[in-house]
């Protein structure tokens, strides 16, 4: 029973290197940061147009399904422009209980969050907070942009209190070849063209092409689940709320008491 999870967890990167965009892991870090910094002003506009219904309302509902409640202290990793953080602030009832962490200063500079939310520059693999500090951890559609799932998930475990909850929102490829083909046409064909019309930044078209390539190359859901379990989380599950739109996944887990 132990051999399979060890084999799954061995590949720690969320996807293979995408060498059409960067040469190696070190170059990837700089590429991703520059890409998000340079397109931050366009991000919310594009997300609103093509977000598959994944706006603040959906994100808030996902947080509540995973166990976020009033009074909890939450860290949102990969906070970006604050879509998850805004929903979290409404649920916990006090914006000062919400902390956002992101490696992109440009995205955080364009974040629309309630007064009181703390925004801190940092990466999923090195969260700048002490052990057992938060009651809840969230990540909205940023899993594909970290460098090491195992290191990041262990770091998530470290900053959470015993009994704390976790919710990772992610987009995954449809299981059927036809569904994958249609989504690819939409994400890598239509969306970049749309970016030429509504986007204001030069790199916005590239951002959404890269977005699809990371979705297509990302490790399968069972690997994400296995790596969360290997990092010490329990009750790990992949929840699909909208069965007709099964590309939207919610990974839920608990840190043991």
Automatic annotation (TrEMBL):
<dbReference type="InterPro" id="IPR029063">
    <property type="entry name" value="SAM-dependent_MTases_sf"/>
</dbReference>
<dbReference type="InterPro" id="IPR004033">
    <property type="entry name" value="UbiE/COQ5_MeTrFase"/>
</dbReference>
<keyword id="KW-0808">Transferase</keyword>
<keyword id="KW-0489">Methyltransferase</keyword>
<keyword id="KW-0474">Menaquinone biosynthesis</keyword>
<keyword id="KW-0949">S-adenosyl-L-methionine</keyword>
<dbReference type="Pfam" id="PF01209">
    <property type="entry name" value="Ubie_methyltran"/>
</dbReference>
<keyword id="KW-0831">Ubiquinone biosynthesis</keyword>
<dbReference type="GO" id="GO:0008168">
    <property type="term" value="F:methyltransferase activity"/>
</dbReference>
<dbReference type="GO" id="GO:0032259">
    <property type="term" value="P:methylation"/>
</dbReference>
<dbReference type="InterPro" id="IPR023576">
    <property type="entry name" value="UbiE/COQ5_MeTrFase_CS"/>
</dbReference>
<protein>
    <submittedName>
        <fullName>Class I SAM-dependent methyltransferase</fullName>
        <ecNumber>2.1.1.-</ecNumber>
    </submittedName>
</protein>
